[in-house]
Design brief:
It is found in: Cytoplasm. By secondary structure, this protein is an alpha/beta fold. It is built from 14 helices and twelve strands. It has three domains: 114 residues, Probable tRNA modification gtpase trme, domain 1 (Gyrase A, domain 2), CATH 3.30.1360; 130 residues, Up-down Bundle (Four Helix Bundle (Hemerythrin (Met), subunit A)), CATH 1.20.120.430; 149 residues, 3-Layer(aba) Sandwich (Rossmann fold), CATH 3.40.50.
Length: 440
């Protein structure tokens, strides 16, 4: 049986309007009653009273009572809503500890909710993602996991594999059951290819969304004095990079973070690409070329007052496998503009046409798609399951029998189950008896 735990659920190290002290465990009602003057409420009831330390008044509070399993954690829970002072909040915590509770470990309330069957690991990790979200996009991605649709999608594939594994097990271990249909290799192959396609789509969608979730890497590259540092400063709305009339000022990569259209970006200003005699500048140019390879979007910035040259051609060629945007700077100095091209004035913060082009790259991603997995652990298990399914398909195509193929299917099933919880081979047995009526 679980013991009784307590923690400050709101920010306990700052003064604030309200602070919340949460307790959970079998005896928390009795523990709170030892230092609370109000009445013990019924399930989902709020009562009013005072927290007392002996005869000393500590705080005037509202207490929320959750009895039994029908709550977030799945066991008796009490939440004390106190005034948000650091001292009184700490005193209430100390009273709970002195009267039979212990300090909760990090994440222990969510862990208990998982162990009590109130949420799967997808939602538990989504709660953590929501708490640590740094922008609107990350918040939206986290809250999307709360509706359970991603869990439903994963569980659908898990159940498909369970049925296939169960039928193969029955065919191998219970051949005397004539009423159980033999699973033919071509039928198994067809079903596995459907599952493989589903997992492949998930991986593809997730990789695209993870670029956004973690921050889209955007590199500004071009010749010296094209205005790269001015463009970086304009995006960041601060004078982060040094801007002078002298060519080759930027020797190292300068970076910063900004949000555009609700999407997070990590932008990098690079050294101008040209022939250089200075060793430091040569190193900077090599780093510029490396940024082209490592970034998601390349902004090829061109000085509109100069002509295109062979270095511009090199930049364009190196960016051929990237999302590439060619931008002409110093539009305020140009009398003529070529139709269809993007013109800006970084010096004057005139970036509207470029901003629209950047946002357009990601505007068609459906953030509400339940197949998007942005959690690293979960996606690695999806990829592992995909490889196992690929191996199973290859084994069938090479003439291996079902008793060999089932090893890969069990691996694929186990990976998927570990996304939402912990794999248990009893589930395989349950599926066999449930779906094929063995031993009734």
């Amino acid at each position: 049986m679980f013991d009784n735990i307590v923690a400050i659920s709101s920010g306990g190290q700052v003064n604030q309007a309200i602070s919340i002290i949460r307790l959970t465990g079998p005896d928390v009602f009795q523990i709170v009653k030892k230092f609370y003057t109000g009445k013990v409420g019924k399930d989902k009831q709020i009562t009013y009273g005072w927290i007392k330390n002996g005869n000393e008044l500590v705080d005037e509070v509202l207490v929320m009572w959750f009895e039994g399993k029908n709550n977030f954690i799945g066991e008796n829970t009490v939440e004390i809503n106190a005034h948000g002072g650091i001292v009184n909040t700490q005193l209430i915590l100390e009273l709970a500890l002195a009267n039979g509770a212990r300090m909760a470990e990090p994440g222990e309330f969510s862990r208990r909710a998982f162990l009590n069957g109130k949420m799967d690991l997808i939602k538990a990790e989504a709660i953590n993602d929501l708490i640590h979200a740094k922008n609107r996009f990350q918040t939206k991605m986290a809250i999307k996991k709360f509706d359970g649709k991603t869990s439903e999608f994963i569980n659908k594939i898990i159940n498909q594999l369970l049925i296939l594994i169960g039928q193969i097990e029955v065919n191998i271990d219970y051949p005397e059951y004539d009423d159980v249909e033999q699973l033919k290799e071509n039928q198994l192959l067809l079903e596995l290819k459907k599952i493989k396609d589903e997992l492949h789509t998930t991986i593809e969608l997730s990789e695209n969304s993870r670029i956004i979730y973690q921050g889209i890497k955007l590199a500004i590259v071009g010749l010296p004095n094209a205005g790269k540092s001015s463009l970086l400063n304009a995006f960041l709305n601060e004078e982060k990079a040094i801007v002078t009339a002298e060519a080759g000022t930027t020797r190292d990569v300068v970076e910063g973070n900004f949000v555009l259209g609700g999407l997070p970006f990590l932008i990098k200003d690079t050294a101008g690409i040209r022939d250089a005699n200075n060793e430091a500048e040569k190193i900077g140019i090599n780093r510029s070329l490396k940024q082209i390879d490592e970034s998601d979007i390349i902004i090829h910035l061109i000085d509109g007052t100069n002509v295109w040259n062979n270095y511009d051609e090199q930049i364009k060629y190196r960016s051929k496998n990237k999302k590439y945007i060619q931008v002409i700077n110093k539009a305020d100095l140009l009398n003529e503009k070529e139709k269809g091209k993007i013109y800006i004035s970084a010096k004057n913060n005139d970036l509207e046409s470029l901003e629209k082009e950047i946002i357009k790259i990601y505007q068609n991603i459906d953030l509400n798609n339940e197949q998007i997995i942005n959690n690293t652990r979960q996606l690695s298990l999806i990829k592992s399951s995909f490889i196992a399914i690929e191996n199973a398909i290859l084994a069938i195509e090479n003439g291996f029998t079902a008793d060999v193929v089932i090893i890969d299917l069990r691996k694929a099933w186990e990976d998927l189950v570990n996304i939402t919880g912990k794999a248990d081979n009893e589930q395989l047995l349950d599926s066999m008896f449930k779906n094929f009526c063995l031993g009734k």
